[in-house]
Every structure is written in C-alpha cells, then in structure tokens.
Amino acid sequence: RKVRKYTAFEPNGLFATRLEEWLCSTSETEPPLLCLEKPPDIRRIPFVLQDNMGSGTSTGTSDEDEKYDIILFCHSMYGMKPKHRFIERALEMLVQRPQGGMVAVFHRDGTLHLDGLVCHRTASFPTGVVSVANNDEVLDCFGSFVAGFIMQDVDVDKAIRVCRALGRREEAHPDHLLFSSPNVMAAFTQDATTLPELTAQVPLVKGDRTVKNREARLQRPASIVRPTGVRHVQQCVRWALKHGVGLTVVGGGHSGHCLWPNVVSVDMGAFDQVYIITAGKDGGDSGSDSGSLVVAEAGCTTGDIVRTTMAAGVTVPLGARPSVGAGLWLQGGIGHLARLHGLACDAIVGAVLVSVDSSQVLCVGCVPSQHWPAGAVRPENESDLLWAIKGAGTNFGIVVSVTFKSYAAPTYLTRNWVVPLSRNLEARLKLSDFINSSPGRSTGTVLQMRICTGTPASCILA
C-alpha cells in the first residue's frame, strides 16, 4: 500500500525546511518513506484547535477534505494545552469506521495527563532508551518497527544500514545499538471518548483511591470505577471488549500495575467479605484438613482473612503483610505457614471470575453453591483454568472470589533471646531445645551473620 498523503505541522521554519529536505528525494538520495505517492505537505504553522480558526491561526484542516489513518503527536505536545482537547480534535480527523484510524502520542518528562480519554494501547520506556542487538537478523526485524511499515521489494541490507545509521553506540554496551525513545507511547482510537458510557453503568470511586505501591501512585488512570456487584464487573469487561481498550484491577494496591496511565482501573474494594463454610454445608466434600472452606472475595486483604478465620479456629496460608490483597494468592504467596502448608495459591480449590474473553461469569473448581452468581457456568477447560489461576490468576479474567481449603489454626510458642556474638554454639543449642520441647510441628529459622571479622552470630526466628 502507498501512503497517499503526508502532512506535517511545524511552526519552526528551520525544522520545517530540514524535514522537507529529508522527506523529498533528490538525484543522489532516496526518500526515507519510499511509498509516498506524492510530495509531503509541510505546513509552517502550529496545529491548533478548530475553535481558533476564526482568529487567523487555522490549521487549514476540515472534516470534508482532511481525513487520516494515523496522526502522530511528537515532542510531548509542548505548548498544547489542554492536551486532551488537541487529541479530541485529532480524533475527529481520523478516517471513519469500519477501517478507523489511530492517534499516537510520544511523550517525555513525566505523566501524561489526558482527562477523560482512554488509550487503546500504551507502552512505557522509563529510561527513554531502547537497546537492540547489533546483528543482521535482529536489525532486519527491527527495521520495519523503525520505518513504521513492512518494507517489501527493498534490499534487506538497506534496512539494516538505516538502523545502524540511526542507532548510537556506547562503550558499556558494545554489542548493542541504542535508540532514543519516548518515556510513554500511547495510542488512541475513536473509542477514546467512550468513558461516559461506562460511568453511566458502574459507580465511580468516591474521593481519592490510595494505593500502597509508589510506582502506581505516580500514574493517572482515565478513571477508577468501583463495582458493587458481579453485574458491574461484567459491564466493565463488555465495555472494554466493545471498544478495544484495556482494564487494570485494584485489589490490595501493592502492585505497580494496578493503576496505569489513561486506562480505566476496576477497584474491587466493595467485594470485601470472608465466609467460613463448614463441611457438608454446601452439599459436597470440602477436601480440607479442617473440614471447612474459606470463601474470600477479591477486595479482601490478608488481615481480613486471618482475623475471620482465626476467630473460627481455622487458618489459610497467606503472606506476612496484613494489607496485601488478592494479587498475593493469585500469583504465589509466601508466608509464615509456607513450610507447613505450601504457598497461598496451593490452598485455592475454586474461584469465581469474569472472563476477559466473553464477560461470562465462570465458576471453576470447588465453589459452594450459595456463592454461585446467577448465570455462572463451568468452562470446558475448567481443570486447566483452575491450575493456571494458582500462580497466574491475574491473566484470565477479573477474579470475584476464591475458595480456599483451610487448616486447623496452629498454636505457636515464641521465645526471645539475646545471645552475645561470641556464643554461636549456645544459640544453636537453645534453638534445638526449644524445637524439641514444642508440642506438635514447629518451624524455625536461623539467620547467620558475620560482623567485620568476628565470630558468626545467629539470629533465631521461631
């Protein structure tokens, strides 16, 4: 396919001249865009909002004669305020569906604030550098990325030479080429303005949503919705599928990915209940050592589950931080009971989730009948999905609740000793006597450390 039209707005006369010279071919050189049907249109004026056309600063664009497949904003949109208005104006200039078009923003220096706009795709390069191996095979693949299209009927060596000419070398990375890149690249389609469609169906978070992760706190999502029922979660997924956008999920707020710039976040905080299901109450075998199951909704924290289960005389192997949420048990979960009962994810025997492929509510594994949402079904790949949830549970849908097998709550003895650094043997003997005198199973950890050149010391955790 040929590029029928290339238009650039560059108010700096020097840059505009250089751009025009670079894009236009001469008798000695070939143009960098080999598939241009006609010479580029370089306009020495700024791109301004349509509202300013009457002030003599018109872009010269109109809905009738200027439609584009791709519109790029480079140089972080410096001087364009408010930025979201300029992107909205560019969205109006895209070709209409069914083909549609795309607006891409290359941004440096901090978070990109685009109030109310939802991005189609986003990529982050915090260092502003992309490193590529300096060999022909890799550069041949990378060449189409640099050019922005698949180069056909072009000498392969030419694409590789272009990459090597554009990349720079550093002594610290002798075998790689380094390419400057924006810190953030965000792509928007004509669905970028459809957020009101979702917020009309699903409640928004009231006030600020504080998360634990520092990286996530630096991000500014398009919006944070707070579903209060499974139906709301389904509406979030249907909206995302309809408009080809992504979602992030907030549980305990410890993940760096729970908030993402210009992406809608789904806060599961309203799903914060913990239920203890005794053996036989749900009409099936619990498969639990204690005879009980624990159903924990996705907005629960480790502290919520521990407090509820301990009051009932049972427990679940979880982590050590009471504020950590569902991301812990869906992605592993190391805690104080790991030596006795394994990881937190090992205790999962069932789950309820909303599929990201279909928005259908799925029940997998052992889910007590009273916790089956209306309309839920068992998927054909139920056993595989249950296996995958135990460690990769954030990848297949929005989890509404999980069912844990529980264990009898253990009783622990603790001892605190202060042992001089010169008495390493004494520390080991104390630990051995303590373990041998403790009833039932015990766990103990010995942390050895050496200070300067002194005798190793033992820090005992029992």
Task: Describe the protein in words.
The chain has 462 residues and is α+β, with helices and mostly antiparallel strands. It has twelve helices and 21 strands. The chain has helices at residues 13-23, 83-92, 136-147, 156-166, 195-199, 214-217, 230-243, 302-311, 326-330, 338-341, 382-392, 424-437, and strands at residues 7-9, 41-43, 70-73, 102-107, 121-124, 129-133, 168-170, 173-180, 184-188, 223-225, 247-250, 264-267, 274-278, 292-297, 314-315, 348-355, 361-365, 397-405, 407-408, 445-449, 457-461. The chain has a five-stranded antiparallel beta sheet. Strand 16 and strand 17 form a beta hairpin. The longest helix has 14 residues, at 230-243. It is globular and about 90 Å long. Residues 51-58, 444-454 and 457-462 have low confidence and may be disordered.
Short key terms for the protein model shown above:
462 residues; alpha+beta; five-stranded antiparallel beta sheet; 21% strand; disordered C terminus
